[in-house]
Amino acid sequence: MLLEVQNINKKFKEGYEVLKDVNLHIEAGEIVGLIGMNGAGKSTIMRIISGVSTYQGGGVFFEGSQIKKLSSIQRKKIAFLCASNNLYEEMTVADNLEVFKKFYNASDMDKQSMIDELDLGKILKRKVSELSSGMQQRVAIACAMVGKPKLVMMDEPTVSLDIENKCKIIRFIQSHLSPETGILITSHNSKDIEELCERIYILRHGEIVKESTVKGVLREASRHNKRWIVSVQLDKEKRLDNLLQGYNFNYTEDSVDIYVEESNKKSLLQMLNDFEIISVKSEVDNLEDAILEVAQIGGE
C-alpha cells in the first residue's frame, strides 16, 4: 500500500470538526480523485498527508511508515502541489527550478526533462510574477515533479486554466503515472476527474460518504434517479406538441427530448410505440450530477 489514511479526525481550536473518521488509501499505479464542495475538507486532508497539518486520532501511513515519523529523505518522496503553487514569484523560472532541484536532490537531467515536457524553455529567464496563471501552474508542476516523487498530491491542478494549458497538464499527469507512483487529485472540474481517475472518494462535511469507481458512481446515481430523458427521432417538420401535453420537452433539429418521472416512464414509452426512440437515459448522465446525487444519498 502506497498511502493509507486510517480514521483521522481534525478539529480547530474553536471545536469545529473539519474531518470525521476519514479513511482512504492509494495503491501504486493509480490516480485517485478526492471530490467535495468548498469547505468539505479536501485541502485539509492533503495538508495532513504532506505533514504540514496536524490531526487527531487514527494514523497516516506512507509505504507502511507513519507520516509523523518519516525521515527527511522519505518526505521528499511526497510532492504536494497546493492551490497557491508555492513558487518564488520574484525569482525567475530557471531559479525556481534550481531551488527545487537541489531540495529534492534531483539531477540536471531531471530538471531538463521537466523543462522539455512542460514546454518551459522560452520562459526560463522570466520572473514567475510576470507569467499567466496557466504558465505558473506548469512551472509549479515542474518544480513539484522534478524529484520524481512516489506520491503526488495535486490540489486543483487545472483550475482557471485555458483549454491548451489544461490539456497539457492532463497529458503530463497521465504520462507520469507508473507502477511505482500514486497520484491524488482534487478538482471542481468533473470532466478532469472522469478523464484522469479510475477511483474516487466523495467528501461531504468532512466525512467520506462514498468510495467507488467513476463508473460505479454513475451507475448508483442512475439507480436512485427518478427522472428520465426519452429522445425521439422526428422529421424536421413534425412536432408532437399535442401528444406531449403535460410533459416537459425540448426540440432539437431532428428530434425531441422528453423529460419524464419514473412513475410515468412506462406509459410514455407505450404512447411513443409508433415512433423511433433514439435513447432512454437517466437524467443523471454526467459525473457532476452523479456526484451530487450520490453525496446526498451517502449523507442521509
Automatic annotation (TrEMBL):
Alphabetical UniProt keywords: ATP-binding, Nucleotide-binding, Transport
GO MF entries: ATP binding; ATP hydrolysis activity
Classification via InterPro entries: AAA+_ATPase (IPR003593), ABC_transporter-like_ATP-bd (IPR003439), ABC_transporter-like_CS (IPR017871), ABC_transporter_ATP-binding (IPR050763), P-loop_NTPase (IPR027417)
Tagged with keyword ATP-binding: yes
Ranges of residues in domain ABC transporter: 3-230
Highest taxon of the lineage: Bacteria
Protein name: ABC-2 type transport system ATP-binding protein
PROSITE patterns (UniProt xref): ABC_TRANSPORTER_1, ABC_TRANSPORTER_2
Family membership: Belongs to the ABC transporter superfamily.
Gene3D superfamilies, per database record: P-loop containing nucleotide triphosphate hydrolases
Pfam families: ABC_tran
CDD domains membership: ABC_DR_subfamily_A
Keyword match Phosphoprotein: no
